[in-house]
Amino acid sequence: MKISHISGAAIFLASMAAHAQESGLPLWEAGVFGGAASTPAYPGADSRTSRALVIPYLIYRGEVFRSDRGGIGARVFRTTDLELDIGFAGSLPSNAKDTDARQGMTDLGTLIEFGPRVKWTLARPSPGTQLRLELPVRAVLEFNSGVNGQGVAFEPELVYEMRNIAGGWSLSTSGSLVWGDRKLNNYFYGVTPQFATASRPAFDAQSGLIATRVGLSTSKEITPDVRIFGFARYESYSGAANLASPLHQASSGSSVGIGLAWTLGRSAQRAAN
Hints:
Structural class: mainly beta
Helix content: under 10%
Number of domains: 1
Strand content: over 45%
CATH topology: Porin
Largest sheet: 13 strands, antiparallel
Shape: globular
Distance between the termini: 24 Å
């Protein structure tokens, strides 16, 4: 999940499958992933959430249906430099009791994003490197005592990838702008009268910028079956649309984490790319 209280799992799984962009890899791989991460509780929070988890994973590199770096979805259209897919992304929940500003308010539930994304390769400066623009527009669904629509997210992102650099490491850097409509921003920053207090006045959020982000992720194959991952990300809230919200208490945030993936099985059939 990119727009919300980012879980370490979402970032790790995105990094873990980044090498799915390479050709000649198995059609599918399955295994176990373990990792730990520390992130802001939500964009603009002055408290942090730390998570450790062990989960199974499946990477599938089909011509149409795929589970890879960007999540789970279907590739609708593809040329050498341009691709359109429809996919999912998600994040784990955040408890209101873990953040002082949200004490007594409703918890932030598990969020699932669904919608189209355009991926445009702008340049390939050298073998194993590429500069890519991604334009996802996704509806946000919350799973918390039912399913509720929580607005729309848009995050134009510029990504530069380098594979198999010094020592066999792969590196990816990115920069993005995270935008939410009024309903999504109210989900994070709105305070209805029932939750207003003397120190937390009522607030009606507006559509607009949530954060400006820059990130770095890296991975290395230790053995044919074991791969290590790490990431760091910084986000600035300067110019955000709802800085006046009593729930918006930080000017910037950072996320870091590390993980290990162990492949337990893979197909003999190779992916077409």
